[in-house]
TrEMBL record, chain A:
All residue ranges annotated as the FAD-binding PCMH-type domain in the record: 37-217
Species of origin: Pseudoponticoccus marisrubri
Name of this chain's protein: FAD-binding PCMH-type domain-containing protein
Matches recorded under InterPro entries: FAD-bd_oxidored_4_C, FAD-bd_PCMH, FAD-bd_PCMH-like_sf, FAD-bd_PCMH_sub1, FAD-bd_PCMH_sub2, FAD-linked_Oxase-like_C, FAD-oxidored/transferase_4, Oxid_FAD_bind_N
Family: Belongs to the FAD-binding oxidoreductase/transferase type 4 family.
GO molecular function, one term: catalytic activity
Alphabetic keyword roster: FAD, Flavoprotein
From TrEMBL, chain B:
Keyword annotations from UniProtKB, A to Z: Electron transport, Transport
UniProt xrefs under InterPro entries: ET-Flavoprotein_bsu_CS, ETF_a/b_N, ETF_b, ETF_beta_N, Rossmann-like_a/b/a_fold
Protein name (database record): Electron transfer flavoprotein subunit beta
GO MF term (any one): electron transfer activity
Residues of the Electron transfer flavoprotein alpha/beta-subunit N-terminal domain: 23-215
Gene Ontology terms describing biological process: carboxylic acid catabolic process
Highest taxon listed in the record's lineage: Bacteria
Source species: Pseudoponticoccus marisrubri
Family: Belongs to the ETF beta-subunit/FixA family.
Subunit note: Heterodimer of an alpha and a beta subunit.
Transmembrane stretches, start-end: none
SUPFAM superfamilies attached to this UniProt entry: Adenine nucleotide alpha hydrolases-like
Length: 479, 252
C-alpha cells in the first residue's frame, strides 16, 4: 500500500489542513488523558460532515485500512490507542453543529464533535436540561460519550447515556449512513438498532450525530458535604436519603478523607470546608425544576441522620459559589491522582448493598499484593459504582508500577466477580480491559457479540483491538 | 461591643442574569438568591472579632422581602448571635434604595448602640455602593471603606483600604462604619450543627414603620438592558491575511 497515495486521497476528501501526520501535529490526539498510552496511527483525519466520514470509510474499505474513531480523547481505557502506524484515526472534533433544539419535544439533535458541556449549554439556553455530566465534560464529546455509554454524576436520577439517546446517525464500516435520528420517546418499529452502537466503543460504526432526550431545566439545588465514620453508614444513609428526598436526589458521591488532602493540595484556592478530618465524605445534591422546598427536605433528612448519629458533621452550600467549591473538591481529587503519575485505576460496580464489603475485600488485596501503596475508594455510591484506585509510593517508575499492579488488578477482578459485580461500570473496555472482559464473560455471550461484530465489520477494520480481539489476518495484510 | 452587620439577599453571583422582557429590571422569578458576597465577608469578619474577644455580640440585619430571613439564617449559621428582619417589600423585584436602608439602619443603631457597623462595600445586584457612606453621614460617625484588613484597638480601629494603585492605612475613631472589600477574608461554611442551632437563635421581625422610615422610591429606573453580544469571530486562511486584517482595523 502506498502511504503517500492514501494521505493524498484523504486530503482530497477533507482538505490538506485536516490530515495530520507526525508526532507534533498529532500530539493532542495520540497521547491519552491519563498519559499512560501513546497511539501510533497512520494519520489523524478530521472530517467536517457525515458525508466526509462516509467517504473516508469507503476509501478505508477499498484500501483495507483500519479506522479508529476519536472524540475528545478523555477515555481511560486506551479505547483509541491503536499501534503499528496502520490505522486512520478519525477525529470527530470538527462536527460541531447543534442541529436542532426542540424544547416542546424535549429533544435536541447534535453532531458528534459537540462537547458534553456545549450540549448542556445549548439545552439550558432553551430552558431545558441535558443531564449527562462528568469531570471531563468540557473536552469530552457527544459522539464519544455515546460510543462508550458514559455514566458520570447524574446516573442516579437520569440514567447513563443510553437512557438519554433517542436515536443516532451512524456511519458503518462500508460507508453506509444509518439514520435513526428520532424525536420519538415511543417507537416500537422493530429492533432498536441504534442501541447496538451505544457502548460499542467505535468497534461497530462511527456515531456522527445523536438525538438526545431533554428534561426540564433545574432551577433549584441544595448541595451538602457530609462526614461519615465508614462505608456501611453511607450505604444505610443512601437509602434513607433517596426515600426522604421524594426521589429528587441527583447526586450521591462518596470519597475518603484522603481525597480532601489530595484536592486541597492540587488546587490552591481549595480548602477543607469542615473543621475536622473524617474517614469518609458524601457529596449529596438534590435538585428540582419547580417550586419544591428543597431546603426543608434536606434539613429534615439531615436532622434525622444527625439525630441517629449516622452523619457526623457536614456543610450545606449557602451559595452557588460554595456549591462549585464542593464539587471542585470532588473533581480536583481525581485530577490530583492523575498528577501523581501512573497508578492502579479501576471502575467497579456492585449492588449498592455490597459496596462496603467490596471495598473491605479490595483493601485486603492491596494489603497482600501492594504493601505500602495508598488505596482510595471513591465514586458514585448511588449507582454502586466504586473507583478503587491505588497510588504507588513516590519514586516508583511507570514500568515498575505496571508490573506490580498487574497481579493485584487480576486478583481484584476475581473479587468483584465474587460480588456479582462489573469490572467496568462506566469507563468501558477499550484495549486495556479486553483480555479481562474475555476472562470474565460467558463464552456464549462473547460468541454472540462477535457475531454482531462480524456482521457489521466483517474485515475487522473498526477500531481494531478495541472491545474485540484484533483480526490478525487484517494486521498481517497491512503490516 | 456589639457589631451590627447588614446583609442583603441578592441574585446569586453565579446565576446568569436575564433582563425582563419589558426592560424594567432583572428577572428574579425562580432564580437562586444568596447573601451578597461582600456581606458574607462582613459577617465573617464580625465573627472573627467575636472569636478574638473584641466583640461580644454580632447582630445581622436584613431589609427587604420576607424571604430575606433565609439570608439571616445563613448569617446566624455562620455564627451571628441574633437577627433583625425589616420586611420592607412584598415583591422580590422591589429594591429598597440606599438612603431608605441607611435611615432604617441608623434607627437600629440608635436602638442597639453597636460599636461597629460592618457592611459590604456594595451589593452585587444594583452595585450602588452607597449605604455605608450614607449611614456614616446620618450618624455623624467616622467611616473606613473598602477594607482589606481591620484591627480594632480600644477606641480606635486601624483599617487598611484598597485604593487605586495600592493600599492606604487609616485610623478611625470608634464607633465607626467599615465596609468590606473582597480580600478581607474568606468566609467560612456554615456547619450542619451550626445550621441546626441557628434555627433556635432569635430573629426579630420589624417593618420600616417601626422605625418611622418611608421606603417609597425616590429614583426612577429608566431602562435595564443586556450587555451587547460579542460579535462572532472570523477565521482567516493565512498569516498574511491575518496581518492585512489587523492593519485594516488599525490594530498593527
Amino acid at each position: 500500500m502506498n502511504e503517500q497515495d492514501c494521505l493524498a486521497a484523504l486530503a482530497a476528501i477533507v482538505g490538506d489542513r485536516n490530515v495530520l501526520v507526525g508526532p507534533e501535529e498529532t500530539a493532542a490526539y495520540v497521547r491519552d488523558w491519563p498519559g499512560d498510552n501513546l497511539a501510533e496511527p497512520l494519520c489523524v483525519v478530521r472530517p467536517a460532515t457525515t458525508a466526509e466520514v462516509s467517504e473516508i470509510m469507503r476509501l478505508a474499505q477499498a484500501r483495507g485500512i483500519g479506522v479508529v474513531p476519536q472524540g475528545g480523547n478523555t477515555g481511560l481505557v486506551a479505547g483509541t490507542c491503536t499501534t503499528g502506524g496502520r490505522d486512520i484515526m478519525l477525529s470527530l472534533g470538527r462536527m460541531r453543529a447543534i442541529r436542532a433544539v426542540e424544547p416542546t419535544d424535549m429533544v435536541m439533535q447534535v453532531e458528534a464533535g459537540v462537547t458534553v458541556e456545549e450540549a448542556q449549554m445549548a439545552a439550558a439556553a432553551a430552558d431545558r436540561l441535558f443531564p449527562l455530566s462528568f469531570g471531563a465534560q468540557g473536552t469530552a464529546q457527544i459522539g464519544g460519550a455515546v460510543a462508550v455509554n458514559a455514566g458520570g454524576l447524574n446516573v442516579l436520577r437520569y440514567g447513563m447515556t443510553r437512557n438519554l439517546v433517542l436515536g443516532l446517525e451512524v456511519v458503518l464500516a462500508d460507508g453506509t449512513v444509518l439514520d435513526t435520528l428520532s424525536a420519538l420517546s415511543k417507537d416500537n418499529r422493530g429492533l432498536a438498532l441504534h442501541q447496538l452502537f451505544i457502548g460499542s466503543e467505535g468497534a461497530l460504526g462511527i456515531v456522527t450525530a445523536a438525538s438526545l432526550r431533554l428534561l426540564p431545566r433545574i432551577t433549584r439545588r441544595q448541595t451538602a458535604l457530609l462526614a461519615f465514620e465508614g462505608l456501611s453508614e453511607i450505604v444505610a444513609f443512601a437509602g434513607q436519603a433517596r426515600a426522604h428526598c421524594s426521589d429528587l436526589l441527583s447526586a450521591f458521591e462518596f470519597m475518603p478523607g484522603e481525597a480532601i488532602e489530595l484536592a486541597t493540595g492540587h488546587v490552591d484556592s481549595l480548602r477543607d470546608p469542615l473543621e475536622a478530618r473524617h474517614p469518609y465524605y458524601v457529596l449529596l445534591e438534590i435538585a428540582a425544576s419547580g417550586p419544591v422546598d428543597l431546603d426543608g427536605l434536606l434539613m429534615g433528612l439531615l436532622e434525622e441522620a444527625m439525630g441517629d448519629g449516622r452523619v457526623l458533621d457536614g456543610v450545606v452550600a449557602a451559595s452557588d459559589q460554595q456549591r462549585k467549591e464542593l464539587w471542585l473538591l470532588r473533581e480536583a481529587m481525581v485530577e490530583a491522582q492523575a498528577a501523581r503519575g501512573p497508578h492502579l485505576r479501576t471502575d467497579f460496580s456492585v449492588p449498592l448493598s455490597r459496596v462496603a464489603q467490596l471495598v473491605a475485600a479490595l483493601e485486603q488485596v492491596v494489603a497482600e499484593h501492594l504493601p505500602g501503596w495508598t488505596s482510595l475508594a471513591y465514586g458514585h455510591m448511588g449507582d454502586g459504582n466504586v473507583h478503587f484506585n491505588v497510588l504507588p509510593p513516590e519514586g516508583l517508575d511507570g514500568a515498575e508500577v505496571a508490573t506490580r499492579a498487574a497481579p493485584a488488578r487480576a486478583r481484584m477482578y476475581e473479587v468483584v466477580r465474587g460480588f456479582d459485580g462489573s469490572l467496568s461500570a462506566e469507563h468501558g473496555i477499550g484495549r486495556e480491559r479486553r483480555a479481562a472482559l474475555y476472562a470474565d464473560r460467558a463464552p456464549e455471550l462473547l460468541r454472540l457479540a462477535e457475531g454482531i461484530k462480524a456482521l457489521l465489520d466483517p474485515e475487522g477494520r473498526m477500531n481494531p483491538g478495541c472491545l474485540f480481539p484484533a483480526a490478525e489476518a487484517q494486521k498481517g495484510q497491512n503490516g | 461591643m456589639k457589631v451590627l452587620v447588614p446583609v442583603k439577599r441578592v441574585i446569586d453571583y453565579n446565576v446568569k442574569v436575564r433582563v425582563k422582557a419589558d426592560g424594567s429590571g432583572v428577572d428574579l422569578a425562580n432564580v437562586k438568591m444568596s447573601m451578597n458576597p461582600f456581606d458574607e465577608i462582613a459577617v465573617e469578619e464580625a465573627i472573627r472579632l467575636k472569636e478574638a474577644g473584641k466583640a461580644d455580640e454580632v447582630i445581622a440585619v436584613s431589609i427587604g422581602v420576607k424571604q430575606s430571613q433565609e439570608t439571616l439564617r445563613t448569617a446566624l449559621a455562620m455564627g451571628a448571635d441574633r437577627a433583625i428582619l425589616v420586611v420592607a417589600a412584598d415583591d422580590v423585584h422591589t429594591d429598597i434604595e440606599p438612603l431608605s436602608v441607611a435611615k432604617i439602619l441608623a434607627a437600629i443603631v440608635k436602638e442597639e448602640e453597636p460599636g461597629l457597623v460592618l457592611c459590604g462595600k456594595q451589593a452585587i445586584d444594583n452595585d450602588l455602593g452607597a449605604t455605608g457612606q450614607m449611614l456614616s453621614a446620618l450618624l455623624g460617625w467616622s467611616q473606613a471603606m473598602y477594607a482589606n484588613k481591620v484591627d480594632v484597638e480600644g477606641d480606635h480601629a486601624v483599617v487598611t483600604r484598597e485604593v487605586d494603585g495600592g493600599l492606604q492605612t487609616v485610623k478611625v475613631k470608634m464607633p465607626t462604619i467599615v465596609s468590606t472589600d473582597l480580600r478581607l477574608n474568606e468566609p467560612r461554611y456554615a456547619s450542619l450543627p451550626n445550621i441546626m442551632k441557628a434555627k433556635k437563635k432569635p430573629l426579630d421581625e420589624k417593618t420600616p414603620a417601626d422605625y418611622g422610615v418611608d421606603v417609597s422610591p425616590r429614583l426612577e429606573i429608566v431602562k435595564t438592558g443586556e450587555p451587547p453580544v460579542r460579535a462572532a469571530g472570523e477565521m482567516v486562511g493565512s498569516v498574511d491575511e491575518l496581518v492585512s486584517k489587523l492593519k485594516e482595523k488599525g490594530i498593527v
